[in-house]
Amino acid sequence: MRFEIRARCGRARSGRATTAHGEFSTPAFMPVGTYGSVKGVTPVQLRELGAEIVLCNTFHLMLRPGEAIVRELGGLQRFTGWHGPMLTDSGGFQVWSLGELRKVEEVGVHFASPVNGDRVLLTPERSIEVQRALGADIAMVFDECTAYPATESAARASMELSARWARRSREAHGDSPAALFGIVQGGMHSALRRESLSRIVEIGFDGYALGGLSVGEPKDEMRAVLDDVVDAMPADRPRYLMGVGTPDDLVDAVARGIDLFDCVLPTRNARNAHLFTSRGVVRIRNARHRASAAPIDPECGCYTCASFSSGYLHHLDRCGEMLASTLATIHNLHYYQHVMARLRAAIEAGTLPGLIEHLRRGWNTEHEPV
Q1: What ranges make up the beta strands (E) of 113-263?
Q2: pLDDT at residue 370, as a whole number
C-alpha cells in the first residue's frame, strides 16, 4: 500500500492510499460488512453512495462460511462483489465482546463459537492466517481490547499483552502483499497509550490504529486520548480510529489528524429508524412524521431524500417493510460519505474550521424527542 498526504489544515490531513484493488481518499469512512455484506445495500449502491473502501469481520467470516470457502471462491472481492479496497479487522474486538464466554491466555483467546458452540482458539498467528486467506488489502494485528473502566494495572497488563501479540502478528504476516496495521491500546491512561505507541512503532507497521475507544467512555475522555497520542503517531502513515462513530465524532477526530474510520452506527441506526441529517438525528418512527411531505433532509441529495417523503418512510417503518431499512441505510451511508467528502475538500481549501462550525450549527438546530 502506498499513502501520500496531499493537504493539511491545522492538524487535519487529506491524503490518498493506493492498494492492489484500487485507491481511496482520506479521511475515509469504511462501511462495515460484518459477514461480507453491508446490511441493506448492494456493492453497486455502496459505490454510488461514495464508499471507496469497506471493512469485513475476520471473526465472523472465519466461523461462517470459513476462510477456506472464501479463498476457494476467489477471495473477498470476488466472493462479495465489492471490487475495491478492503480492510479486515483481526477479531480482537469480537472476542472481547464475548465477555465471560472467552478465556484470555498468552497463546491467544479460547471461546465457544456463537455459531455452533465449538471450542475455538484464536491466536495472533491464526488471525493473520485467516486474513491472508480472505485476501484483504489491509490486515490488522490481533489485540486485546481494553475494557472500560480499567485500572492502570489492568490496562498495563492488557496493553503489554497486545504489544506481544502485535510482534507475533508482524512475524506471522511474513511476505504477505497486504498492508498490516498495528493497534495502540492502553485504556484511558495517557502514559500507557504513549508507551503502547512507542512499542508498536518500534515493531514497524504500514499504518497505525487506535483501539479500545468508543467502548463506553465519555466523549471528553476519548478526545483526551486523541489529543495525547495522535500527533505522536508516524506522520507518513495512515492513522485509523477503530469503531468510531457519530458524525460529530468523525469531525472531532479528523480535526485532530485521524485518516480512517469504521462504525456500524449508520447502518444499525438506519435499521432502527434513526437517521443522521444536516439538522441532527431524525427518528422517523415518531408520529410527527406521519403526514410529512418533506424529505428526511432538505439539504440531502441521496436517492431516498430525492424520491420519498418522510411520511412514506414513516409508513414503511410502521408496517415493518424491508424497504424502510434499505432507504434509511442509503440515506445514512450517503450522509456519512458526503460529510467525509466535504471534510476532505475543506482541508484542501484551508477552510476546515468554518465547515466544522457550519456542520455543528446544523446538528444543534433540531432536538427531536424520542
Answers
A1: 119-122, 138-140, 179-184, 207-210, 239-241, 260-262
A2: 44
Q: H or E element: which one contains 103?
A: strand 102-104
Catalytic annotation, pick one of 89, 252, 297, 317? 89
Q: How far, in Å, CA of 187 to CA of 155, rounded?
A: 6
- Lookup: cell for 8: 493539511
Amino acid at position 194, single letter: R
Kindly state the cell numbers that stand for 274: 434513526
Task: Dig out the grid coordinates for 217 from the structure.
Answer: 467512555
Among 259, 262, 297, 317, the active-site one is: 262
Res 315: pLDDT? 98
- 206 among known catalytic residues: no
Q: Which amino acid is at 86?
A: M
Q: Is position 89 annotated as part of the catalytic site?
A: yes
Pick the CATH number of 2-262 from 1.10.287.130, 3.30.70.330, 3.20.20.140, 3.20.20.105: 3.20.20.105
Q: At what angle do helices 124-134 and 152-173 cross, to 10 degrees?
A: 50
Which residue ranges does the chain devote to CATH 3.20.20.105? 2-262
Whether 158 contacts 118, CB under 8 Å? no
pLDDT band, residue 101 (cuts 50/70/90) = confident
Q: Judge contact between 142 and 123, C-beta under 8 A.
A: yes
pTM: 0.97
DSSP 278-311: TTEEEETTSGGGTT--S-S-TT--SHHHHH--HH
